[in-house]
């Protein structure tokens, strides 16, 4: 049979995974650059996003150097003799990397919410609750994936139609349902989570709409999860033609993880958007550019009155100081009537000026 007549979806898999992985690499790099430009140290959410990026690298290497070169994307009878073995080994390692990466990126989003909104005590319990749900889902998925076949090496040693003995502890389709559906639910919760708190921030309406729009970008990840669920429903798990039947689910799993990293990095790129549009990282206010000041003061002028912050002040910690009751530029400016306030500045650069 001529090589050109052999059905091969390998190039399609490589194109989809490589393009989205490149976007994830760029987004992660720009996230770090944004922090450096504003001279802010990397925080927990940044480190979690970077850790997740390592799992996207692992999945891309498995796809590019192990699976596709050994027949993934072709029918099993058109591939090399070790095609099923390469697919099974890549699937086992890739799914562990997939679950670990998704858990880390969801943690990164929750850490971001904590950094921005934790001055509101009502949000802390909700963040911890979501953290527990995501952690339980991730741990359960990893354990089931690791232990569903006994012995463990039968996940990749066992081949279709093989006479070797192994024991499967769960149904594959039930396992797929058990990880795709909770994954979609937690993504929806992460999208809806910040909505009531954005309204409470001391930001202009344009900034609030920008933050809400960025949060809605995660709907793209939910849509991809729905596509993945669709292909899971129609996948033939009984056929030995695994290198062909698993193409869609494997490809969309990698795409989902890559785009999850991109969406998680978007809020941190706002300083670069400001730089691109205004030509400067600085805005109109001299007060902790891009921060959210949630104050216990009687009006919203505290942010404009705190012109500078102490050199030993750390991002993400409450600042308590004396401010004038009269805003800058008012006829009463300069009158010595001060009161003590407590202001929480979440970050200098998250949302621009």
UniProtKB/TrEMBL annotation:
Every Rhodopsin domain range: 30-273
Keyword Transmembrane: yes
Membrane topology designation: Multi-pass membrane protein
Keyword Transmembrane: yes
Transmembrane segments: 13-34, 86-113, 125-147, 175-197, 209-231, 259-281
Subcellular location: Membrane
GO (cellular component) term, any one: membrane
Keywords: Membrane, Transmembrane, Transmembrane helix
Pfam family, one: Fung_rhodopsin
Signal sequence region: none
Family from the record: Belongs to the SAT4 family.
Protein name: Rhodopsin domain-containing protein
Organism: Hypocrea virens (strain Gv29-8 / FGSC 10586) (Gliocladium virens)
